[in-house]
Amino acid sequence: MQGRCCGVGKKTGHTVKVVTTPNSTNERLALYQQLLAAGGTDIDVFQIDVIWPGILGNHFIDLSNAANGAENDHFPAIVENNTFKGQLVAMPWFTDAGVLYYRKDLLEKYGEKPPATWQQLTSSAEKIQAGEREAGNDKMWGFVWQGRAYEGLTCDALEWISSYNGGTVVDEDGKITINNDKAKEALTQAASWVNTISPPGVLNYAEEEARGVFQSGNAVFMRNWPYAWSLGNSGDSPVKGKIGVVALPKGGEDGSHAGTLGGWQLAVSKYSKHPDLAADLVMHLTSREEQKRRAIVGSYNPTVASLYTDEDVLNANPFFGNLYDTFANGTPRPSTATGARYNQVSNAFWNATHNVLSGKEDADTALSGLKSN
Ligand code: GLC
């Protein structure tokens, strides 16, 4: 593994070595599982996905003493999510929810409004894609998103299905709910985008591939997490100042806006030789002050509610205010109900979804197959 050595904390003078990990959450999980199963002492602090406390919780120390009540400044649902067998195994670092990015300039040019339903998104995307191609940009696509067979596809597909009121794959009591007509309608619609308003390559896109196309000016709409805002508006971005953000569309007039709850936590390894120093670092990194800084420089969503009314944070990320509900009430993946088995459940779900998107199976066959797994 490569290390980016070393930052010396201004506050304490301690040296922190940052270790680079793979971008994909699945690959990261596999690496962490290996490291933690071996009880290695090299890594003190782990950055963990919101869906992992039930998978990795046994390997982390209880941070309650170090937090000493500071956890109460954070969104209660995330603190609850990070509580495993009664212990606070991770502190919230930033939260995430899927949002819809659009090109303000292009919507205006074609007299279109930001879409409220997937049907509206589809027709605006078709119209603008056709118009822009005719005007000479043959690389233009209507809509880019995450279609690779990985955890990101679970996030996107949960949004489609939940926006059609088709549930969350497994309900809170652990019952498999995915084999339903609303879910089939949602996946069938998503499959219709591939190679019409979305490039065939979308079936292998993760977050960064989608951002690459949108940021280079070749997509009208993009589904992504908030981090893409700051990068899309950076100095050399071709779409700087041309981006709008709204909640993801509803599945028809009776549907609902749904953004999958994502986000990252900081946890201290049980095998660390410096657990107190590590916990101190976690408390610093998750503090209000540091969350404010990261919100401004990187559009990372705070987990401290009061930062959503902070003027500096809102100046840097105007949509944090309008979309407060999306961030405070994201649609959770079924990781609490499935616990240590979440990754297997998600794996089966993203594979079934990928089969529908690629035309290998219809939604009925793919989802009824899942039920019997
Ligand atoms: C983002 C989210 C994380 C999710 C991942 C999927 O990093 O914060 O929760 O699992 O995307 O690719």
How does the SSE layout of this entry go?
Layout: E1 3-8, E2 15-19, H1 25-37, E3 45-49, H2 53-56, H3 64-67, H4 76-81, E4 83-84, E5 87-88, E6 91-97, E7 99-103, H5 104-109, H6 118-134, E8 141-144, H7 151-163, H8 181-193, H9 207-215, E9 219-224, H10 227-232, E10 243-246, E11 261-268, H11 275-285, H12 288-298, H13 311-316, H14 319-322, H15 324-328, H16 335-338, H17 342-357, H18 363-371
Parallel strand pairs: 8-9
Antiparallel strand pairs: 1-2, 3-11, 4-5, 6-11, 7-9, 7-10
Alpha-D-glucopyranose is lined by residues 25, 49-51, 96, 151-152, 155, 207, 225, 262-264.
Helix-and-strand structural type:
alpha+beta
How many helices does DSSP assign? Answer: 18
CATH architecture label name of the largest domain: 3-Layer(aba) Sandwich
Q: Write down how many β-strands occur, each being a DSSP E stretch of 2 or more residues.
A: 11
Beta content: 5-15%
Question: Class of the largest domain, according to the CATH hierarchy?
Answer: Alpha Beta
User: Which ligands accompany this protein?
Assistant: alpha-D-glucopyranose
Per CATH, the superfamily of the largest domain is: Periplasmic binding protein-like II
Shape: globular
- When the domains are counted, the total is 2
Fraction of helical residues: 40-55%
- Global Rg: 21 Å
Which fold does the CATH topology of the largest domain refer to?
D-Maltodextrin-Binding Protein, domain 2
Main beta sheet, described?
4 strands, mixed
